[in-house]
Design a protein that fits this description.
With about 400 residues, the chain is α+β, with helices and mostly antiparallel strands. It has two domains: about 240 residues, FAD/NAD(P)-binding domain (3-Layer(bba) Sandwich); about 90 residues. The chain is built from twelve helices and 20 strands. β14 and β15 form a beta hairpin. The model has no long low-confidence stretch (mean pLDDT about 90).
C-alpha cells in the first residue's frame, strides 16, 4: 500500500492486489517506528494518521531475572516523532488506501489473489489473479512482489532464498488490561522463559517466546500450565490471562530470518518480507518494508514514467537496501544467539543481565544510540519521488 500510494502520487498507473476482502486481520506487526512516522510527515499525512487510535512508547525497559534495566530511550534519538506508535495494521492500511483515492492512477483490487506470473520470453509481463469473478490477467510493465515471507511472486519467479534460521518461535495472544495497570517493562526474561508485552490501551498484546519447534510440547503440557508460565513471567497478567480460553486464542508465529541474493528478474522486483524476512526482534519488519517502498519509489518512479527500467536499474533497490537489511538482521542474530537462546535454556540457574545491557542502562546517552538503531535504522529513507507526474507506465 505504501508503494502503491507513492507511485500513484507520482502519476504512475498502479494496481495494488489484496487477496482478502478487507484488511481486518491480526497482522501482529503493529509497531510504527519514527522512521515511518517521518515518511508520513513528509507526505503530509501525519496529522490525520496520529488521529487514529494508537498508543505511544518512548522508553524500552527489559527485565532480566527480576532486575529491570533501560535498553532504549527514543527521546534521545533527535527524531521529530520520538516514539513508537502501536496501531492496528489494518488501520494503517485503510488510512493509506483512503488517502490514495485522490490519485486517479492508483487502483486497489480487493479479493484479487496473485497465483502466477505472466511471461513474455524471459521477462515478467504481469500476473494472473483469482477474483470472485474468476481468473484475470493483469498486464504490467513492472511487477513488484510485496507478498510477504511466503511470497507466491518470488516462488513463481524461481528466486532462491538463503535461510539464516532463528532459535525461537513466538506465541501471540491478547490478555485483558485494567485501566489502573501501568507497566513500562517491554521484555521479560526468566530462566527458561521470555515474554514481550505491548500496552494496547484496553488489552495487552503478548508474545510468549518458545524454543524453535516446541509448540506441540507446550500444548501437550496443557493450557493451565501455559497460563501459569505466562503469569509467573508477567504477574500483571494474572487477571487478564483469563481471556485466553483455549488454544484457538493463541497464534503461532514461526520465526524465520532469510534473504534473497537476487531481488529481480526482468520486469520483476521483490521488496519487504518477500526479499528478506525479519525476526520479530525489535519489531522492525513493517518499518524495513516501508523503507524499501520509499527507496523503490525514489529510484524508479521517474524511470517508470518513461517505461519499465531494465534489470540493472531495478537492482538499484537491492543495492540501496541490502546493507541496512543485513545490518539489522545481524543485530537480530546477535540478540537471538546471545540473549534469547541463553534465556530459553531449561534450568533454574540465575539469569544475569547481559554486560551490554548493564552498560547501556548505566550510560543514558547510549540508550539513544540503541533507540536510534531500532527506531530509525541504519539508513533511513526520505520521500524524494516525484508528485503529480503524467502516468505513462504500469506497475
Amino acid at each position: 500500500m505504501m508503494l502503491g500510494y507513492l507511485l500513484g502520487r507520482a502519476g504512475i498507473e498502479t494496481v495494488v492486489l489484496e487477496k482478502h476482502p478487507d484488511f481486518f486481520r491480526d497482522f501482529r506487526g503493529d509497531t510504527v517506528h519514527p522512521s515511518t512516522l517521518q515518511v508520513m510527515d513528509e507526505l503530509g499525512l501525519i496529522d490525520g494518521f496520529l488521529k487514529l487510535p494508537h498508543q505511544q512508547l518512548q522508553k524500552m525497559d527489559g527485565q532480566f531475572g527480576g532486575r529491570s534495566v533501560r535498553i532504549a530511550d527514543l527521546g534521545r534519538t533527535g527524531a521529530k516523532y520520538p516514539f513508537i506508535a502501536f496501531m492496528p495494521q489494518w488501520d494503517f492500511l485503510n488510512f493509506l488506501r483512503e488517502a490514495g483515492k485522490r490519485f486517479p492512477p492508483l487502483k486497489v483490487m480487493m479479493q484479487a489473489d496473485a497465483t502466477d506470473l505472466i511471461w513474455s520470453g524471459d521477462r515478467v509481463a504481469g500476473v494472473i489473479a483469482d477474483t470472485p469473478e474468476g481468473p484475470v490477467r493483469i498486464q504490467a510493465d513492472l511487477t513488484i512482489g510485496c507478498d510477504g515471507r511466503h511470497s507466491t511472486v518470488r516462488q513463481c519467479a524461481g528466486l532462491k532464498v538463503e535461510e539464516i534460521g532463528a532459535p525461537m518461535d513466538v506465541l501471540w495472544f491478547r490478555a485483558g488490561r485494567r485501566p489502573d495497570e501501568i507497566e513500562n517493562v517491554f521484555a521479560r526474561l526468566e530462566p527458561g522463559k521470555m515474554m514481550v508485552t505491548f500496552d494496547r490501551g484496553t488489552y495487552w498484546q503478548c508474545a510468549y517466546v518458545i524454543a524453535k519447534g516446541q509448540y506441540d510440547a507446550v500444548k501437550a503440557r496443557g493450557l493451565d500450565a501455559f497460563q501459569s508460565d505466562v503469569v509467573a513471567t508477567a504477574p500483571m497478567l494474572r487477571s487478564g490471562i483469563a481471556d485466553v480460553k483455549s488454544w484457538d486464542d493463541v497464534k503461532l508465529l514461526t520465526v524465520a530470518i532469510n534473504r534473497m541474493k537476487r531481488w529481480t528478474r526482468p520486469g520483476l522486483l521483490c521488496i519487504g518480507d518477500a526479499a528478506h524476512a525479519m525476526s520479530p526482534v525489535g519489531g522492525v519488519g513493517v518499518n524495513l518494508a516501508v523503507q524499501d517502498a520509499v527507496a523503490t519509489a525514489n529510484l524508479l518512479a521517474a524511470k517508470l514514467a518513461k517505461g519499465c527500467p531494465d534489470e540493472n536499474e531495478l537492482d538499484a533497490v537491492r543495492r540501496r537496501r541490502e546493507f541496512p537489511m543485513r545490518m539489522t538482521q545481524a543485530m537480530q542474530i546477535v540478540v537471538q544467539n546471545n540473549i534469547i537462546s541463553v534465556a530459553l535454556e531449561p534450568g533454574d540457574r540465575p539469569l544475569r543481565v547481559p554486560l551490554f545491557a548493564r552498560i547501556v542502562n548505566a550510560v543514558p546517552w547510549l540508550q539513544g544510540l540503541t533507540a536510534r538503531f531500532l527506531a530509525i535504522g541504519v539508513r533511513s529513507e526520505h520521500v524524494r519521488s516525484p508528485a503529480a507526474s503524467t502516468a505513462s507506465s504500469r506497475a
